[in-house]
Write a structure and sequence with these properties.
This protein is an alpha/beta fold. It contains nine helices and 13 strands. The strands form three sheets. Strands 2-1-6-7-8-13 form a six-stranded parallel beta sheet, with helices on both faces. A four-stranded mixed beta sheet has the order 10-9-11-12, with no helix packed on it. Helix 1 crosses helix 8 and helix 3 runs parallel beside helix 4.
C-alpha cells in the first residue's frame, strides 16, 4: 500500500515536531518536507530527526503548494499552529481542496466546520487528539444524557495547567463545560482557572520539572451546596506523545474516508475511535 503523504504545519513548534517525528518513524506515512508556519518565524528551515523541512511563511504558501502538488498531489495536512491561525488556515485548506486534521485549539469552530461542509474536501477537527481522554469525554456525554440535572445543587471548579507558551484556554476543559451544564451545573468557559506560570506549576501543582514545557493537567471539583459532599477527578498528561499517536490515527482514518469518496464532511475523534 502506498504511504500516506503528510504535511505537518506549525513547525518548529513542539507539538508539530512531535507529530512529524512520529510520521517519520511510522512506515504507514511519508513526511512532506514543507511546513506552513507563522509570520513571526524568521528561519527558513528546521530539522526533524535527520530530515530538513522548509518553513513556509503565509505570503509564500501558494508558490510552495504548487511545488508540493507537483510531486505529491494527494496529501493530508496536519495543523498545530496558533489559535489565531485556525480560521485563516482552515479557509486555505478548503479553498485549495486540501484534506486536513486540525489539532490546533481556538478560533471560531462553527465557522471552521462550515467552511469544510461547503468545500470539496474533508477534515478531522478535534480539540483533543488523545484517544483515551476523548473516550472519557464520551462517558461524560453519556452521563449527561442519562442523568440531566444530577448535580444541579453543586458548585463546580475547573482548573487546567499547560505549558507557558499555550495561548488559549484548554480545548479539553472547554469541551467539558457543556457536559457539566447538562448535568445541572451553571458554569461558563470564562470561569475556567488557567495556569501558565512554571513556578506555580512545579511547586503548587506538583508537575515534574521536565514536563513544564509540555503537559496538560485538568482537575474538576464538584462540591454540594452544604459542602458535605465533594467529588474530584483529574486527567493529567505529561509530554505530547499521546496527542501525536492520536493524530496519526486521525490521519489514517481521514485517508480511508477520502478513498471512499467522502467530501464536504467534518469528522471528530469520536468518529476516529469508533472507526465508522
Amino acid at each position: 500500500m502506498d504511504s500516506i503523504k503528510v504535511m505537518v504545519n506549525g513547525l518548529p513548534g513542539r507539538m508539530a515536531g512531535a507529530v512529524a517525528r512520529h510520521v517519520l518513524s511510522d512506515s504507514r506515512f511519508a513526511l512532506i518536507p514543507f511546513s506552513f508556519t507563522g509570520p513571526e518565524i524568521s528561519e527558513g528551515e528546521t530539522r526533524v530527526a535527520d530530515t530538513a523541512v522548509r518553513l513556509v511563511r503565509p505570503e509564500d504558501r501558494d508558490a510552495a503548494l504548487t511545488k508540493v502538488k507537483a510531486v505529491s498531489p494527494d496529501f493530508i495536512s496536519v495543523d498545530y499552529t496558533h489559535p489565531s491561525a485556525v480560521n485563516p488556515n482552515g479557509d486555505f485548506y478548503c479553498r485549495n481542496e486540501l484534506p486536513f486534521v486540525m489539532g490546533t485549539t481556538g478560533g471560531d469552530r462553527d465557522r471552521l466546520e462550515e467552511a469544510v461542509l461547503q468545500s470539496s474536501t474533508a477534515a478531522v477537527i478535534a480539540p483533543n487528539m488523545a484517544k483515551q481522554i476523548v473516550g472519557f469525554q464520551a462517558m461524560m456525554a453519556q452521563a449527561a444524557r442519562l442523568f440531566p440535572g444530577l448535580f444541579e445543587d453543586y458548585r463546580l471548579e475547573i482548573r487546567e495547567s499547560h505549558q507557558k507558551g499555550k495561548a488559549d484556554t484548554s480545548g479539553t476543559a472547554k469541551a467539558m463545560v457543556k457536559y457539566f451544564n447538562d448535568l445541572g451545573l451553571p458554569f461558563v468557559e470564562a470561569d475556567i482557572l488557567k495556569e501558565r506560570e512554571p513556578e506555580r506549576q512545579k511547586n503548587l501543582w506538583g508537575i515534574p520539572e521536565e514536563f513544564l514545557t509540555g503537559h496538560g493537567w485538568h482537575t474538576y471539583t464538584l462540591t454540594s451546596a452544604d459542602e458535605t459532599v465533594r467529588f474530584e477527578f483529574s486527567h493529567n498528561v505529561n509530554g505530547r506523545e499521546i496527542y501525536a499517536r492520536g493524530t496519526l490515527d486521525a490521519i489514517a482514518y481521514l485517508r480511508a474516508k477520502l478513498q471512499q469518496g467522502v467530501r464536504g464532511k467534518v469528522f471528530s475523534m469520536i468518529d476516529v475511535l469508533q472507526g465508522k
